[in-house]
Amino acid sequence: MTWLRAFGEVVRTGLTIEETRLEPLPALRAAAGVAIVIGPALWLVSPAYAASAALGAYSAGGATFQRSWRPRKVVALGAGAGLAVSTFVGYLAAGRLVTFLPLLAVWAFAAGTAWAVGSTAGIVAATTVGSMLVTVTLPTSVGRALEHAGVIALGGVTQAVLILLFPIRRWGAHRDALADALAAVADYARRLRHDPTAPFDPEPLMTARDAAAVTPSQARTRPPVLHGPRGLAERIRPVVAALADPDVGAPAEGPGRDRARELLDAAARSIRRGTPAEVRPESTDVLRVDEEHEVLEGPARQAAERLVELLGEALEIAGSGCARGRTATPPGPDGARFLVRPTMLRLVPVVVRAVRRELRRDSPVFRHAVRLAAVATLGYLIAARLPLGHGYWAPIASVMVMRPDFHRTYARAVARLAGTLAGVALATGVVRALGPDAHVSGALAVVSAGLSYTLNRTGYAYSQCFTASYVVFLLGMGGQAWEQTVPERVLLTLLGGALAMLAYVVFPAWETPRLPSRLADWLAADGRYAAAVVRDYAEPTREHHADMRRALLESREARAAWQEAYDRARREPVRPRGLTSQEAQEAQEAQEAQEALKGFGRAAMLMESHVPRADSLFVPEAGRFPEAERSESATPPATGNSLPAASSPATRTPVSPSRESDPPGSAVLSPSLLADPAVVGP
């Protein structure tokens, strides 16, 4: 799209109100943490000291609202520790540009590479850069450095203690993820009534699997209801797809499908609410599959019997809910019974490996880290030359809005400016009307912090509105008049947002050139998944079942990576320099190639629904297909980034990722082999 259309889309996204459930109780708890830190500092020391002490509590409280499956108290402690370390190191280097600027650049680069671990790590790391920038306005000495670092760390400890003393929906996010997965399968079953080939987005299942990964300590306290139902949703999905397909399943739909849908919805409601669900007695009729009530034959009958078995498990979950007195699966030798998440100490080598993989010029994370380091130092230098106080606001604004992709960076820049304008206007009106003293300003700052937490997931602009008010009240508590802080805040926020936008234009990380490689990765993963399914027909062993499951997960990850890249590419304003007209045309055909690959994956999923049970009779003829896949994998892949032609899957040629060398087995299996009797047998 053009720059004008892209900017219009950016403005709409930045000012959109996201329809999400508000969380007033966690927001009240986090605001109480800010108040606990501000109150004693204001009473015992000074307003200026209280203003600086609030930094750790406010930032640590905000970190707990980021998407993370770890306990919120751990996130608060981690954020507080990171802020304290950055404050201490910033103190040691502050005072001279020759020491502070290199430190700022290195720290900002490291914060940018944290996106290799995930968005939560990247956002929390960005706040540590802001903490380092704020410290340059305070006295510089080792004693003062330790003192302020300790106060900031105390803010994180305060938030963690409040979370420990007042837990609110401790496993609520995990319940929601699991319920969403079951509800997605229920919705899929409903849509299959009208469209036997309806698509299914595996994102809820991927999120539920991510939520299911726990540390050994979490596994000891996890509610029993969170263990097991996710696998139930995974097994139901291919079965209902096979039953609805007119070629391999039921030729028509009946009332039994309605009752099956009701059971799935009831199970989803039970998991989400944590209470037993009410199921009508007539709904259990769907579990009756016998010669008198069942007319299906062949593969359709097999799918129906399997579905009845799975729905029986769903009914058990719906009836038991989160029954007390049951214990979670303990960690031990059978660790495969739960997904393991590394502890904070064991996470270090994982982070190092993830960052090392991104240290290449074409990586969006690496480019983001370079932009972050350059903008932070440049913004600080420019703001320091301006006749304005609080020059650190400009680089902080840049650091907090910058993201690895174009659209989110620009949308957050627009949202931050709009929220800042509204917030300082609101705070200015309140200050002029009330003329508050230090204590009233502190109370208003706490209220603003609570409102900012409450609207955290409603939209960045609306949360930023009260964040700006919080800063104005906090500085007013320290004795600074609004006539000084408000104009500076607006101008420096505008400068920081402009620098962030300009940095992406100068050193972009466009997704469009990477679309062919992403598509090739997805096609290769689908080929490996199909080969694993057929191999399980040849030898239905537990090992091959596990291989099929791993191949399915890899296929989902490749599909998710492609979808994310495709969505970003559609929002990019210009065709990147160096992209040929042929590649641009192929990028436009990506939608058709995407639909073809979805169909390929669906065919493998239908085959998976009829895979024999472990230790069943072997079908040696099916082994020819995996052997052909291995032989094709051994063939040197073709070079180039060309997308598959937008034609039928059977005539589409394989695509190879554009890499210097592909690992063994990464070449793509031609879908035409699926139709070759010499390969798959009669």
Radius of gyration: 28 Å
Quaternary structure annotation: single chain
Tell me the major beta sheet. Answer: none
Distance between the termini: 49 Å
Decide which structural class fits the backbone: mainly alpha
How much helix is in the residues? 55-70%
Q: Which overall shape is indicated by the principal axes computed on the Cα atoms?
A: elongated
The count of strands amounts to: 0
Fraction in beta strands: under 5%
Would you list the SSEs in sequence order as H and E?
HHHHHHHHHHHHHHHHHHHHHHHHHH
* Helix segment tally: 26
- Poorly predicted ranges: 322-336, 576-580, 636-682
Mean pLDDT value: 77
Explain this structure to me?
This protein is mainly α and 682 residues long. 67% of the residues lie in helices and 0% in strands. The longest helix is centred in the middle third of the chain and has 29 residues, at 406-434. The chain is elongated.
